[in-house]
Design a protein that fits this description.
The chain has 186 residues and is mostly beta strands. The protein contains 1 helix and 9 strands; from the N terminus they run αβββββββββ. A hairpin with a 4-residue loop joins strand 3 and strand 4.
Length: 186
């Protein structure tokens, strides 16, 4: 049921936004993620990746709306060389302000849909999806630059607003992203 809801949201975004006055694009990059836990434990950063689609919709002089659909590999390095691997389909909804020539400031909410959760210790993988909530909410803040040829880069910080584990406590995602994108022109 949850997978059908995710597919429905993606289908709605793709079909609805392709008919709007929009520039579609592709993007990908690196994630540097951790989880912010309750207590004194301090997990290390885990390097992952993100890849997906964007729709840049101009809304007036220097303002745009940019929804995206991204696959994002997140998580953290835990104690004893154990890694937490969290796979999400993220949908950020960003308001962008264009400043200067090609520069953009952006902020907005992001919904994440958990599709996988595993711990890895050496060569041993364990499915821990049942320990994590299906939906994650975050606030995304960042900046980017778009060149005249349609190629650009961006950097973003996603601050998790919701608790992601089912066992209680305050455990939230924290992800810094850097990447490249290509925005097709009409």
């Amino acid at each position: 049921m949850k997978l059908r809801a995710i597919i429905g949201v993606v289908f709605f975004m793709v079909t609805g936004l392709t008919y709007a006055q929009t520039n579609m694009g592709i993007k990908g990059g690196l994630n540097f993620s951790t989880i912010h836990p309750e207590g004194n434990s301090n997990p290390d950063l885990r390097t992952g990746f993100n890849v997906g689609l964007l729709w840049h919709i101009p809304m007036g002089q220097g303002i745009a709306f940019q929804p995206e659909v991204m696959y994002s590999l997140q998580g953290a390095k835990l104690s004893n060389n154990e890694k937490l691997n969290l796979g999400y389909i993220n949908a950020p909804f960003l308001l962008q302000v264009m400043v200067g020539r090609g520069f953009r400031l952006e902020a907005g909410p992001q919904l994440g849909f958990l599709i996988s959760a595993r711990t890895q210790s050496g060569n041993t993988l364990e499915n821990v999806r049942q320990s994590y909530k299906t939906i994650d909410a975050a606030l995304a803040v960042g900046f980017g630059f778009l060149g005249r040829a349609g190629l650009g880069f961006d950097a973003r910080y996603n601050y998790g607003l919701s608790t992601i584990n089912k066992s209680g406590g305050d455990v939230a995602n924290r992800v810094f992203q850097v990447g490249l994108f290509y925005q097709f022109r009409h």
